[in-house]
């Protein structure tokens, strides 16, 4: 038993589960405080998400919507964890995601490109923004968190400005993709039929899963991963071993940015969401990627499951009973749970301490 | 001596046993410290010295055994209890606030505070000055810690203990960071303290210092108490045999050197200092030939580190040039130098030498991971080859660790970490081996082993550049000594002809020759 508990992967899993349970518990307490009458039902609905619907067909359709938003979240958390393994905290993922949205939508709506070039253009845009952060870090020693936060805002307002050229005249939203340029819509590969003709389920799903595996393989089995992780763990030793530090920093942030750009393209090119050209905050997708990365134990394959869970809770928030609560409560509940997800490392450390103490006591006997 | 005291002993630790999972760190250890004596605690790394002191300081609780102060049994559950009993400790790594003054550091935690909550520094300052006069502890109470020498920082730590009226003073390897002159001063201070009735525990594995300053010496080996001897009745050889469990050869056995062609040629090298606004290495020129060990000696901080950074490529040169095997490598990258035959055993194995969170096998390939034997053309690592290579080095160089190739470097002992680095750097089959303080912090057995390896490299026709701060090492290992003082080479000495005293004069800058081209 103790041996099992000492296993890193098992510890990460248990810590994640504890975080989830704690989050749900505190969310429930918040609901109780506001209005005890509907709390039980509402928290159950948050957890049930699409199961709240009674017809299996509707359930599948809603599940499809959750999946469509899960894919970009997975990619954002991959973006975060990839740079994190190299000792860089890429808070700029959010802005690189925005750049990806901008590039894909602009290319699709203004230039009438097909879906594949649009996706590649978004990847390039995200990578470009990441490269800027990388160059600043490598050559001017500017902390990547500072430049990332600033570039997030630059990226947001630049996107708002550019996409205003392709928005509807009567609303702040960009033009409908399916009416303006249907060939930019991501192909569904027949996946839509599995989810009650939900066309939001597309090629994004296999692309994302492949990306997660690719990140895992790069980090654990290649020379590049060896170099990057060495740099992350001890940059002095990496320098001593003759690794090209600056190149590695720039490349890491470029790859991280590319993943974020890809995330945005795989959401906006489904046509499920449109860009609101007057929004004044950076979309939360990139930031939620941080929680998803940690909840997933900073493992690329763990990110798949943690991202699904977080998206599931977020979508579940809309089923909170609005007779008892104002509609914003859904955001409060899901943010409480997501917030608690960030405690994975803390709980893991606590578990390790308890185990070590027990062993010392045992040694004492 | 014990006339005014209730007991002959200030502190007694009787039959202390402390176990950790899988290891008995202290096995029935007894240590008795008399009033007013300097008592050395000797043992190799991992012998259980630190554990024993942690028990005395309340950081660990022993499973068996008792602690007595002045003959009365006491319980020490945490460091506060230890302080209350008048036990103070100077840690190996000082616990000082860099941007505070000496005085602020001394009174920290026991600040004299007036009625309104204002600090009353005046009487504190008087007490500090009084103490510093009484014991000959030269400090400037208003200097900031970051501006003063390591020796003065240590005196600040000692004053901290005295300010708290501690009677039992523990010094944990206090000489590791000091220059020979500062060591001499410290010993005088310790004698003064003892003469004033303080009882001193002196943890060390440097035999010469123990012989010079201690009254008695207790020896630990592998957690067991070996015995206590009066230093005046013993010899260094006897002490080392007690510590290691066998007779150790202090002198490095080596044949006369047969120097060949010049492999490394440094001319007019100047390297900027990272901390100060000047050059740390000033117009230095020297050559290292095949089949010889050249040692750069000097007191820490005279430009040796920067000299190495310049040669290995960690820092750029301001001016000058470096030739290796006749080829100019002045502007070459670190990787280029490494591939063309330079190996570097770095000064700081944790900062540069290892990725501590990597497994041992990944650390073994740190300099060679990109070679085709470890990496396929498309970039995948050859895990099987890496494992085989690492297992081979572990076997060949006797690197000991819990789980072999899979051990995390962080969990290995310092000596075995160093052995791993040495295995890696030597197995590269270099032309030039730059070894910077390769025996720092290691015990006698490991030092002996590493010296043998360096001589073996020399005999295999390599050029070895050794940078050392240890006088014994400087006298014993190399074939030529170059002394560095304030960034310049001020003397070239033959270790067979010179004496430690002469070497000391050069190192302290009291003597210098014109060394144009060594």
Structure description:
The complex is a heterodimer of chains A (365) and B (518). Chain A is mainly alpha-helical and 365 residues long. Chain A has a single domain (2-364), classed as ABC transporter involved in vitamin B12 uptake, BtuC (Orthogonal Bundle), CATH 1.10.3470. Chain A contains 17 helices and no strands. Chain A is globular, with a radius of gyration of 22 Å. The mean pLDDT of chain A is 88. Chain B is α/β, with parallel strands linked by helices. In chain B, helix 13 packs across helix 14 (414-427). Chain B is globular and about 70 Å long. Chains A and B meet through helix 11, helix 12 and helix 17 of A and helix 10 and helix 11 of B.
Please summarize what this structure is.
The complex is a heterodimer of chains A (365) and B (518). Chain A is 73% helix and 0% strand.
Core attributes:
heterodimer, A: 365 residues, mainly alpha, ABC transporter involved in vitamin B12 uptake, BtuC, globular, B: 518 residues, alpha/beta, Rossmann fold, 6-stranded mixed sheet
The unreliable regions of chain A are none
**Which chains share the greatest interface?**
A-B, 24 and 33 residues
Summarize the amount of helix of chain B as a percent range: 25-40%
The description of the largest β-sheet of chain B is:
6 strands, mixed
- Kindly report the average pLDDT value of chain A: 88
Q: How much of the residues of chain B is beta strand, in percent?
A: 15-25%
How many helical stretches of chain B? 17
Shape of chain A: globular
Number of helices of chain A: 17
Class computed from helices, strands and strand pairing of chain B:
alpha/beta
**Radius of gyration of chain A over all CA atoms, rounded:** 22 Å
Cα Rg of chain B:
25 Å
The helicity of chain A comes to over 70%
So what's the oligomer here? Answer: heterodimer
Secondary-structure map:
The complex is a heterodimer of chains A (365) and B (518).
Chain A: H1 2-6, H2 8-34, H3 36-48, H4 56-85, H5 93-109, H6 115-140, H7 144-163, H8 177-180, H9 191-194, H10 204-221, H11 223-233, H12 235-240, H13 245-268, H14 285-295, H15 300-316, H16 329-341, H17 344-364
Helix pairs in contact in A: 2-3, 2-16, 2-17, 3-15, 4-10, 4-13, 4-14, 4-15, 5-6, 5-7, 5-13, 5-14, 6-7, 6-13, 10-11, 10-15, 14-15, 15-16
Chain B: E1 9-20, E2 23-34, E3 38-42, H1 49-56, E4 64-69, E5 72-74, H2 79-84, E6 87-90, H3 102-107, H4 121-135, H5 150-163, E7 168-172, H6 180-195, E8 199-204, H7 207-213, E9 216-221, E10 224-230, H8 236-244, E11 262-272, E12 279-289, E13 292-297, H9 304-312, E14 319-324, E15 327-328, H10 334-339, E16 342-345, H11 349-353, H12 360-364, H13 383-397, H14 414-427, E17 432-436, H15 444-459, E18 463-468, H16 471-476, E19 480-485, E20 488-493, H17 500-507
Helix pairs in contact in B: 13-14
